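Margin note: ligand = magnesium ion.
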Amino acid sequence: MTLRRLPETVVNRIAAGEVIERPASAVKELVENSVDAGATRIDVVVRDGGRTLISVTDDGAGMTAGELELAIERHATSKLADDDLEHITTFGFRGEALPSIGAVSRLTITSRPRGADSAWSVTVEGGRKGMVQPASHPVGTRVEVRDLFYATPARLKFLKAASTEMTHAVEAVNRLAMAHSGVGFGLGDGARTPIKLPAVSGDPLEARLCRLGAIMGRDFADNAVPILAEREGSRLGGYAGLPTLNRRTATSQYLFVNGRPVRDRLLYGAVRGAYQGLLASDRHPMVVLFLEVPPEALDVNVHPMKTEVRFRDVGLVRGLIVGALKHALAEAGHQASTTVAHAALGAVRAGGGLPAYVGGARAWSGTYGGGAPTRPGGLAEEAAAFHRPLTNLDMSPAARMEPMDPGAAEPDRDHPLGVARAQLHGTYVVAQTADGIVIVDQHAAHERLTHERISKALTEGGVARQGLLIPEVVELDDAAAARIVSRAAELEELGLLVEPFGSGAVVVREVPALLGGVDAKGLIHDLADDLAECDEALALKDRLGEVCATMACHGSVRAGRRLTAEEMNALLREMEVTPHAGQCSHGRPTYVELKLADIERLFGRR
Ligand code: ADP
Ligand code: MG
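Resulting structure:
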């Protein structure tokens, strides 16, 4: 065995294996360098998924001939001024990206610093460094990477289809673009330009929302609530999608720590925790969160790719995220996303595309400072004439409407969910609002209200119980009865007093007062089923969503029950003041709102 020092080319190839996993990692490193160099415009070209060419051009600070020579040296960086790993404020600091890329590709860097009247260029091929030579280039830097991984065939073999690699590259640039709305970004492959993001200036929060909308889509910009919170020197900003705007995967969750895109288990977990009880476990919210922590409270030097970080105070960070998201979502009150109405309209308009966004789901929302009312009077009055019951029409029973008092209150802007006009199919409450109609799924809404009431009562020290006149004995099988009895103390906290009753049966003595008349037998059977699926170690409070849903199912406002006008209006008023009332515990909407403008479109009146 001969012990020897590895040649630099080999060392750099080893480093490249860690830093440059695929073309997108090279794109990320180069774009980060451009941001670090203070660029206001960054253009990326990716050919064949990055296999034949990646080029990144910026208008940043540029490099002198001497700096160019150093930049391709391993561990040469301009970013650790005082050798201080505790206070990193740039993307780079390891001085690894350029030499690593140069070790596995044909790399050319051309650059001209501000104030210089000529440019310089240097090439590295498979680790062999060329001489710095005069070149022509405007102020800024262009880095071209050709034949990535030609020098490491093993890695080359692992590249996926060009389209897949392109998707990763687009994702990498989008992530950086989210955090830097003041920088313009472009990315193309010669034929298509998947990223065209002009720099956005102006109010930083608005600029950010504008940039996020351009990347995440209009739905997100329209249906996300702003986040702003601070705790012990750490700050959280960004936007959180309403729970009804949910996705099948967590890929629409973007997290940044001090401007750096990270994929961090702790942070994803905190987001999940904040939406708990608002979304089914297999649905994921859309969020973009920017966490700013003091540099010394953070270690970014965990992994060469720098996508992982460590926090000094994990509890603080988790608490900040969960608290801020919960608060903002509760503030959003009963809002359900406009996407729900759009989807409904799309389905109604046979073959037609979705109508253009007509604004307004937020028109009444205090959170957004209110918007201009969409067409008061006029059509609203015409529509109002409709609610007079058509008593001379013989309607089939299924479609029969409960006639309402024609003199009932007129809807106004203080009641965004409007005035109940009818109940259809014993299931849907139809209400007239100042500028549209709202259709409420009474069952889903009641389930949500029950959930919120029980959560509130729990935090305030207990759920009020109501004794049953005649205690109800419920027969179950032995195992089911045992499950109920073993949870009796927890159920009592939730307002349900049950005791064992011989073998295979329990007796229900008291029920949560807020359920109204309850079908105790059905409730106990369903709870026993719930408990069978429930992890023994998990407290019922942590599964409050499911338990409340089950309770609400057996409470008085079920689907199929006729409601009086007072009951319907009471339901609407309570929804308006209840946090999260816009969706059930699984993230499905409890109501759909159609604006008059939408309805007019439906009839081609617009
Ligand atoms: P790091 O970013 O960790 O410092 P890199 O290998 O990515 O390491 O870059 C090395 C150095 O080259 C940087 O510190 C910077 O001084 C210089 N550099 C790289 N890219 C650019 C650029 N686009 N504009 C100006 N300087 C750059
Ligand atoms: Mg770098």
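Residues 162-179 form the longest helix (18 residues).
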